[in-house]
Write a structure and sequence with these properties.
heterodimer; A: alpha/beta; Rossmann fold; seven-stranded parallel β-sheet; 9 helices; 7 strands; globular; B: alpha/beta
């Protein structure tokens, strides 16, 4: 008897999860598509604060993300109306961020928070050290992201990611939280400009998962059905 | 009037072949005599200073006390300076304000084919020659250079030798390049707003 009850409960939970996954994971195509029209939401949004999360990886990825923020600051960094949370895993990227955007963000009264993410693996680390640091990184990232997700609930928000490996952990965990907590994740992924005809590994992994997948060369758009292309954005 | 070429090699990985190519006597003479460039500023990347200085020595570059004065004029802390064949050669490893140098002083940019450097130059609407650094692991410099070249935004050098780089400079000096669009897409902006506020 007991066993029967449990198996029914288990089945119901599984069924619910499957339904959630189909509803939530964009590759199943159950999302509405009026995203390119001028936002009527935006006029409503006039007084609503935006919570924005971006992740800065290193080198070229950081460079492209900073260019995106600069090019789209009218939408993403509205004076006094934005809280920007920056995820970083190396200090050089943070310094570049401050150098490029610091003065603008201060002058526009945009609130900035910095979240540090560990690097999954340091060059030259032993296997045991690597395993340990991977686990630590994962645990730290999940904690940070869950906290972030909590901040996002009920607020206009956006997660903007590009290629670095840590983005897979970020998007994966946010999607998982979306599935089990019935909230929205709103992840936009922009593939690196350096990828002209094939996706990066991060791109391939995140293609079925993120809410909007954007590439910068039209050839990729032809290959990948749900990728959107607006030419060069950075 | 004098003109300036700025060579950028990227911040992290050195590009010895490109530095060698532009420090050849033939290169310096040609750019001075054919196109009146009288200054060559080289950003050579981290940990390359000693090699660069020895290359200047080998060229018999006239040591000069002008380094500090020119550093000030360029707004960059120069690490190496010399004069050869009526060309001033300035060298530094890396600078965060390189954009300012490019904007105010570069008449032509010769760069490795990293996307960041390409965008820096094209966003400033400067004539650009790129040289792919093929010595790197897993890199897309060749593809990205070819892609931009096919759209007419820059000229890609066939290789990293003096001859090939000179040929590319000649092409830039004689042809007209297509400016790059601003990178601001109203549609992408709408997409961001709609996702955020939906």
């Amino acid at each position: 008897m007991d066993l029967e009850v449990w198996s029914v409960v288990l089945l119901l939970v599984l069924q619910w999860l499957v339904v959630r996954i189909i509803l939530v994971v964009p590759i199943f195509g159950l999302q509405h598509d009026r995203l390119l029209e001028t936002a009527s939401a935006r006029s409503v949004a006039g007084s609503r604060k935006l919570k924005l999360f971006v992740f800065l990886g290193s080198g070229g990825h950081t460079g492209e993300m900073l260019r995106l923020l600069e090019n789209y600051q009218e939408t993403l960094l509205r004076p006094g109306q934005t809280t920007l949370t920056v995820g970083v895993s190396d200090e050089a990227s943070l310094a570049r961020f401050r150098h490029t955007l610091g003065a603008y963000l201060d002058s526009q009264q945009i609130e900035v928070q910095v979240c540090r993410f560990g690097k999954a693996r340091e060059v030259g680390a032993s296997k045991l050290q690597s395993a340990k640091s991977v686990v630590q990184t994962l645990a730290g990232a999940m904690w940070t992201l869950t906290w972030l997700k909590w901040q996002f609930v009920g607020q206009p928000h956006l997660v903007l990611l590009n290629g670095p490996g840590t983005c897979c952990i970020i998007a994966g965990w946010l999607k998982l939280l979306e599935i089990v907590t019935t909230t929205r994740s709103k992840i936009v992924y922009v593939e690196s400009l350096a990828r002209t005809s094939t996706l990066s590994l991060s791109g391939k992994l995140l293609y079925p998962l993120v809410d909007e997948f954007v590439v910068q060369w039209s050839e990729l758009c032809d290959k990948y059905g749900r990728a959107r292309c607006f030419e060069i954005l950075v | 009037m004098g003109r300036t070429i700025v060579v950028t090699c990227g911040a992290t990985v050195p590009f010895p072949k490109l530095v060698e190519a532009v420090l050849a006597l033939e290169f310096l003479r040609t750019i001075q005599q054919r196109w009146q460039f009288d200054r060559l500023v080289v950003q050579y990347g981290k940990e390359y200073r000693a090699v660069f200085e020895s290359q200047l020595e080998r060229l018999d570059a006239t040591a000069s006390t002008k380094r500090d004065k020119i550093s000030k004029a360029l707004g960059i802390e120069l690490e190496a300076y010399g004069e050869v064949a009526n060309v001033e050669i300035c060298g530094f490893s890396f600078a965060t304000n390189i954009q300012k140098l490019l904007r105010t002083h570069a008449d032509l940019i010769v760069s490795h084919a990293g996307t960041g450097s390409i965008l820096d130059a094209l966003r400033l609407q400067k004539p650009l020659v790129v040289v792919a650094n093929t010595g790197l692991m897993d890199n897309h410099q060749l593809q990205i250079a070819a892609r931009f070249e096919s759209r007419g935004h820059l000229v890609a050098s066939r290789g990293p030798t003096t001859c090939e780089v000179l040929a590319a400079v000649a092409a830039v000096e004689t042809c007209c390049l297509t400016p790059l669009d601003s990178g601001k897409s109203a549609q992408f902006s709408n997409l961001l707003a709609n996702v955020a506020y939906s």
